[in-house]
Amino acid sequence: MTNYKSLREEMVQNQLKSRGINDQNVIDAFSKVQRENFVPDNLKKFAYSDNPLPIGHNVTISQPYIVALMCQILDIKKNHKILDIGTGSGYQAAILSQLCDSVISIEVIPELADQASERLRRLGYHNIKVIHADGTDGYPEEAPYHGIKTAAATPKVPDAWKNQIIKGGKIVFPKSKGIYQELIELRKKNGSFIEKKHGKVRFVPLVNS
Ligand code: SAH
User: Fold this and answer.
1) Is any ligand 1 atom within 6 A of the Cβ of residue 136?
2) Does residue 61 line the site of ligand 1, with CB under 6 A?
3) Atom 23 of ligand 1 has which residue's CA nearest to it?
4) Does ligand 1 have an atom closer than 6 angstroms to the CB of 112?
């Protein structure tokens, strides 16, 4: 039988800590959330491998390190409300839910939204609301957010996201430029945004962007 606990511990050590993930809350969240519950049955043995995995509908569950990096950049506090765009499997939402007060997670593919919502409820993640919608519009009903992160690449940040973030809050997203993408952090300060780059990444495109 696969010892997922020890694979998880190795992942935390070899993929996260060794690459500079040092936010203890992020590390604790990754030590706790069972990634094997978020991948298809036939891929469970690869649940802790250092790469994205296909989850159907031509989309992937993101590489653990990239999920951790986005969480660390967001600098999440216990009282925060976070908007997660691109629910996919729900793994990133589950990680975020350990770090903050509540997570609003938006998925454009109805089957994935339904599956993730059911999975997260079954696994006992009660502070996550999964919405089937186009995340390009953000989710004004629950705004403002302390942080917005997206797991799908866009050449330009939609105005909705900029309007729905609080002063001092951050948007983290993969910016596409031709076939390349770069992980970008935008911090809202005095009504404008300060940009910081965090290296090359690879994500599925944001639909409708
Ligand atoms: N964070 C996810 C990764 C999912 S991949 C996980 O941990 O599994 C990115 C997801 O973004 C896909 O499920 C895709 O369907 C979704 N997506 C793409 N464009 C979107 C949009 N405009 N609104 C909401 N979700 C979108």
Assistant:
1) yes
2) yes
3) 135
4) yes
Q: Is the CB of 62 under 6 A from ligand 1?
A: yes
The pTM score is 0.97
Query: Do 204 and 153 touch, CB atoms closer than 8 A?
Result: yes
Calpha distance 39→160 (Å, rounded): 31
Contact 141, 135 (CB under 8 A): no
List, in order, residues 6 or more apart from 178 with CB less than 8 Å away.
none
Q: Are 112 and 85 in contact (CB under 8 A)?
A: no
**Known active-site residue 62:** yes
Distance of CA 153 to the CA centre of its chain: 12
- 24-43, pLDDT tens digit by residue? 999 999 999 999 999 999 99
Q: Which of 132, 148, 20, 126 is nearest to 87 (CA)?
A: 132
The alpha carbon of 85 and the centre of ligand 1 are apart by a number of angstroms equal to 6
Query: What's the 152 CA to ligand 1 centre distance in angstroms?
Result: 6
- Find the 1 Cα to ligand 1 centroid distance in Å: 31
Task: For 107-119, write each residue's pLDDT tens digit.
Answer: 999 999 999 999 9
Express each pLDDT in 148-198 by its tens digit. 999 999 999 999 999 999 999 999 999 998 888 999 999 999 989 999 999
Q: Which CATH superfamily is domain 4-201 in?
A: Vaccinia Virus protein VP39 (3.40.50.150)
